[in-house]
């Protein structure tokens, strides 16, 4: 991850680190991370999917985090940049395209019908077995679990976990 700029160092999260208030979250988060890390879906596909989710949700935190993960994994700038326009970009495999389409379907309201129609599920299950499908679902759930924190608490973009919240001590409940 690049060294934080002076501007990044001056950034503050809206809320303090949640772990002193809710230490049980660490267990839940680690379970989700382990599921994704040890599952059958390539980490690159998970990062592409989560980058697209961050773009859809308008989360700078998720977008910067996944862009950094993809760069660390050696992904080209073309592939990273093309995630926003994946439908007409030539940089993605069919399996990656299905993952991107699935996350878009889940996160984008569809006023004229269900978000994940049978046809999309059928195409996804042609690329992924049941374990892989559940891993994709958990990759989307991972973003869903942390979305309120990213959008309400506003962790500092580009900072590693543990250093992405402004230090404050718990002051009680309410």
Task: Report on this structure.
It contains eight helices and no strands. The protein is an all-alpha fold. The N and C termini lie far apart (36 Å). Helix 2 crosses helix 8 (130-153) and helix 6 packs antiparallel against helix 7 (118-127). The protein is globular and about 50 Å long. The protein has a domain at 39-153: AhpD-like, CATH 1.20.1290. The model has no long low-confidence stretch (mean pLDDT 90). Helices cover 58% and strands 0% of the residues. 22% of the residues are buried. The protein has helices at residues 6-10, 25-38, 43-57, 60-72, 77-82, 94-107, 118-127, 130-153.
Quick structural overview:
By secondary structure, the protein is mostly helical.
Low-pLDDT residue spans = none
Structural class: mainly alpha
Strand content: under 5%
Secondary structure: helix percent: 55-70%
- Can you give the mean pLDDT? 90
Sheet having the most strands? none
**Shape by Cα distribution:** globular
| CATH fold description of the domain at 39-153 | AhpD-like
CATH architecture of the domain at 39-153: Up-down Bundle
CATH first level of the domain at 39-153: Mainly Alpha
Q: C-alpha Rg, in Å?
A: 17 Å
Annotate the secondary structure layout.
Layout: H1 6-10, H2 25-38, H3 43-57, H4 60-72, H5 77-82, H6 94-107, H7 118-127, H8 130-153
